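Q: Can someone sanity-check these two? First one:
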Amino acid sequence: MNEILGSVAILGGVGLVFAIIIALAYRKLRVWEDPRIEAATALLPGANCGACGFPGCHGFAEKVVAGEVQPAGCNVLSDDGAAALAAFLGVDAGQVNKKVARLLCAGGSNVAVQQADYRGLETCAAAATVAGGGKGCTWGCLGFADCAAVCTFDAIAMNDVGLPVVDVAKCTACGDCVDACPKGLFTIMPLEQRLIVQCRSLIEGDEALRECAVACTACGKCVVDAAPGLVRIERGLAVVDYSRNALATPDAIRRCPTGAIAWVDGAQFVEQPRAERVRISA
């Protein structure tokens, strides 16, 4: 009996010692967190998409409470939501600089040559591994909707010519479509950047047109018509210098013979009426 009581006493003593050590360690190592962070997190959408550049909504809330970012920095938060978060913290909501995913290809099935009939797993990733897919333009969209499948915000839908269309109202710029596209055709850019080259082909001139009627031919007319330095031709493709975005106007697209360069106003792609130009509406 005494042995049993002794064992219990020893175990009890060891437990007490460890409890004291844990309590002291907690007091010493505990990291205090501002209670406003949890409240701010609750006011955020809970999408945890990472489009803000931080690890989820809690990470964004920490930065907002610390004053390092403004509520409008959340790409998913509505204007009213940003105002509510700003009012709670007593800070300025900031200016919304919404970013969206843009597709850099206009080569749908109505204008792009299909050189082979791919039959296999119907994903872009799978098709791309078989000689780059069945499209004549090896840089073009394959149309199997990997981007739409990974979009958790239902912001991408395929149109009737096999191209993904982004709903800018739903897009959070999370970047999942960028990662999913094996051709690298999606990019994240501010909504205010309105001049977009919807082509990634590095083939020039008539050779490019043999594969796609809306390919960039590197003719250079956009370079001449745009503000100085805004557009340049690089490796057979028109490239926009977005550091000069304030200089952008629709003038740059007016003489494009194929419509490869577009002026976009929000969700609508604007183009000049030219009978010979075939374009995909967005």
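And here is the second, same format, sequence then tokens:
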Amino acid sequence: VHEAIASAAIYGACLGATVDQIESALGLVVAHYVPFRAIRAGKQLSDSKGASAAFSAEMAVASVRRAMRGFVGPADIFRNPEAIFCLFGRPAADSSPFDLQLATSGSDFAVMGMHFKLGLYEHQSAGAIQGLMDLFERYPALVDDAGLLRRVRITIYEPAFGIIGDAAKRDPRTRQSADHSMVYIIATLLRKAFETRRAGWRDLMLVPADYDDAGLFHPLTRAIMEKIEFRHGGRAYDEKYPDGIPTSVEIDHEALGSLSSGLVMYPMGHARSASPGLDELLEHKFRLLASLGVADPDLLRQRLTNLVQKSPAKIADLYRFELKEE
């Protein structure tokens, strides 16, 4: 929803739409094209889950084009008493259900509070992944023998508990469902650690192959999944989101005993994380994933960086490059 609003505002501004036209476009988007979490519910998720943001942007562009041709949408959509923002309580007259800040200067931009995912996984599982990485660092012997792993307990906040901890996600059979299954994500990381005897974000970074049929039904992954417990931490965890991704991981190990990551708030990749090495990990991720489609990932990276210094012709030609043949 937020992306659709931003896309409509920015696309309209780029095309020279008037303020009234942009308002109409925003009204059209919010009144007619609002996605809900239904796309993430159920045992097996659909392709549309991963395309939700793209669908929203597509409808934003269509709404701007309609508005610029004179099609008028509902006005004042943020305070409209029947719109999504007022569903859980209507604001007083001439007020807004939230503060809306528009700026063209300063440093307080939403992108500065974002989270870079270091591999392919659902955003809200990053706290558990970091907790696991921290335990690997403290106890290197953890990766030595999968047979010594007794139990893994993950405690997390809502809405993560309801989305990626849903009991229906304990047996994912499609890649769309697997990357929204906390037990599958953590079990896959543990399986890769046991197989390679290595640990760390770089060594265990999840890639498309980790969600193929071989990965989905790997016997060791499935065995580890049965040992994972997922719990809601209650208010103590809920109140710390969305400032961070409050999660804790506990492991019962036959040789090492009871191990705890402690509370993880800002995993690697989170805007508030102070851990060093993020740039290198992002470069590694780019090479790892881009190499699946192009022969020279570094050349592609050069093409896509320093955009402000590129000519209009180069921008227009930005995505015209050769893909690797199957």
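A (reply): Looked at the second one. The chain has a mean pLDDT of 91. The first helix runs from residue 2 to 14.
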